[in-house]
Amino acid sequence: MSRSTDPDRVFAEDPESIRLNHEKEVLLARLRALIGPELRESFIPAKAPPDWPQEAMELNEKYQTVSTELSRLNSRHMSKQLSRFLSAGGQEADMSDAMRRWWMNRY
Questions:
Q1: From CA 20, how far away is CA 13, in angstroms rounded?
Q2: What does the DSSP assignment read for the chain?
Q3: Per-residue pLDDT at 94
Q4: Which pLDDT belongs to residue 65?
Q5: Which tens digit of pLDDT belongs to each residue from 36-79?
């Protein structure tokens, strides 16, 4: 996301995270097709077990890479949002609608 002085832009969804979320969903669906529908996102191992097919091992590696990058982007994005929110609070300015929605959804 490019730098912007528009506070609403900081509270919008990051286009890169939208793309990565989609890629993560596709990889998860392909993993489930190979491993089984009982594979849950929260229980995907960091390293694929040796009994998984080679294709599933490669997909798992890609899945872990995408998940890590998405986590990094989300952390950075949330940090920007909190920073913008705190700086706006010190200026005695009214919150924008996007900023207010973000705060209410967060807490």
A1: 12
A2: ----S-HHHHTSPPHHHHHHHHHHHHHHHHHHHHH-TT--GGG--SS--TTS-HHHHHHHHHHHHHHHHHHHHHHHHHHHHHHHHHHHHTTTPPPPHHHHHHHHHH-
A3: 67
A4: 96
A5: 999 998 889 999 999 999 999 999 999 999 999 999 988 887 77
